[in-house]
């Protein structure tokens, strides 16, 4: 059995995932069950596309329910560091190759709580900026081995 990994979430991301789980376990599960029953009433299940589609949707929903249950069980709520310091849950504005880009540093599950793209702290660029301060220039090794410099223009807490 594989070891379950801690999922770092902001409070807002945790709440949104919890709301999604409640919806999928309640109303959405009931809707799918009604579609299956209606399609089953049509007769021959072997050639019933509506029945097959509803069963596939049921399987996807149950899979997502299991995924959300595990994530929420293993969630650790993180509080982003104060403005100027880069940490999990920080909104970071970077200058990279002359282009300015804004990201959130954290797990991809934080994406539900923000319109920004997310950088994982385990990625090369995420590891390089984690713990740095606004105004710092850090570097990381790209997949091709080239050293890339990044200027941290701004860091602020998400939310």
TrEMBL record:
GO biological process: DNA-templated transcription elongation; regulation of DNA-templated transcription elongation
Superkingdom assignment: Bacteria
Residue intervals of the Transcription elongation factor GreA/GreB N-terminal domain: 8-77
Gene Ontology molecular function, alphabetical: DNA binding; RNA polymerase binding; translation elongation factor activity
Pfam families associated with the record: GreA_GreB, GreA_GreB_N
UniProt entry tagged with the keyword Ribonucleoprotein: no
Domain (Transcription elongation factor GreA/GreB C-terminal): residue spans on this chain: 83-155
Record key words, sorted: DNA-binding, Elongation factor, Protein biosynthesis, Transcription, Transcription regulation
Family note: Belongs to the GreA/GreB family.
Task performed by this protein: Necessary for efficient RNA polymerase transcription elongation past template-encoded arresting sites. The arresting sites in DNA have the property of trapping a certain fraction of elongating RNA polymerases that pass through, resulting in locked ternary complexes. Cleavage of the nascent transcript by cleavage factors such as GreA or GreB allows the resumption of elongation from the new 3'terminus. GreA releases sequences of 2 to 3 nucleotides.
Name of the protein in question: Transcription elongation factor GreA
The encoding gene: greA
């Amino acid at each position: 059995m594989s070891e379950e990994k801690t999922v770092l979430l902001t409070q807002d991301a945790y709440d949104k995932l919890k709301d999604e789980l409640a919806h999928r376990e309640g109303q959405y599960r009931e809707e799918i069950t009604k579609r299956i029953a209606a399609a089953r009433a049509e007769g021959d299940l072997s050639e019933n596309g509506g029945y097959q589609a509803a069963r596939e949707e049921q399987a996807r929903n149950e899979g997502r329910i299991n995924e959300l249950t595990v994530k929420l069980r293993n969630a650790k709520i993180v509080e982003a560091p104060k403005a100027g310091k880069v940490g999990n849950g920080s909104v970071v504005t970077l200058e990279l190759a002359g282009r300015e880009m804004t990201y959130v540093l954290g797990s991809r599950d934080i994406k539900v709580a923000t319109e920004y793209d997310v950088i994982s702290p385990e990625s090369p660029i995420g590891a390089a900026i984690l713990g740095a301060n606004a105004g710092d220039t850090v570097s990381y090794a790209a997949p091709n081995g080239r050293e890339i410099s990044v200027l941290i223009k701004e860091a602020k807490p998400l939310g």
